[in-house]
Amino acid sequence: MRKRKLAFALAAPALLALALPARAEEIGSVSTNFRITGSDKVVIEAYDDPVVAGVTCYVSRARTGGIKGSLGMAEDPAEASIACRQVGPISFKEPLRQQDNVFSERMSILFKALHVVRTVDRKRNTLVYLTYSDRIVSGSPQNSVTAVPVGADTPIPIR
User: Fold this and answer.
1) Angle, CA of 30, 28 and 15, to the nearest 5°
2) Cβ contacts of residue 137 below 8 Å, gap of 6+?
3) Residues 147, 121 contacting (CB under 8 angstroms)
């Protein structure tokens, strides 16, 4: 059992390297807890779907401040909210997988990551986006979901 935990701990950097890096644009934030060394915040970030042109996901999440936060050593809370919207004409750069990890971003130095997963609802011609966080050993059940309907004249291509 100890060998298995050690293997997970050693594999953490490799697993994070395999996750798609996030291409976030911070568009706003509010302070929630003042600290002289840097306040805790709720940030709002925009992520453009890299395969679906015309769709942007807005994620709000807590970011820990202070000295550890400014050095990237703090572990941010698992809570996040997502709202994805059509912001232009929808087009597909390539056929989509039924479910795909679209964005990932580290929430701690090694072990925790925020994910945005896209799932295709074929019956309703809709893109469904889910955000959640995970850890190497134990993840969080906290999540948020949103959907972007695609017009009937634009069928979603599936691989």
Assistant:
1) 100
2) 5, 8, 111
3) yes
109 forms bridges with which residues in the sheet?
Answer: none
Tell me 95's DSSP state: P
Q: What is the pTM of this model?
A: 0.73
In contact, 115 and 103? CB cutoff 8 Å: yes
38: left (phi over 0), alpha (psi -120 to 50) or beta: left
Whether the CB-CB separation of 49 and 56 falls below 8 Å is answered with: yes
Residue tagged 């090694």 (tokens): 110
Q: Which residues have C-beta within 8 Å of that of residue 145, sequence separation ≥ 6?
A: 82, 128, 129, 130, 131
One digit per residue, pLDDT tens: the chain, 159 residues? Answer: 544 443 433 333 333 333 445 467 999 988 877 666 667 788 899 999 999 999 999 999 877 665 554 545 455 556 789 999 999 999 999 999 999 999 887 655 555 678 899 999 999 999 999 998 876 555 667 889 999 999 999 999 999
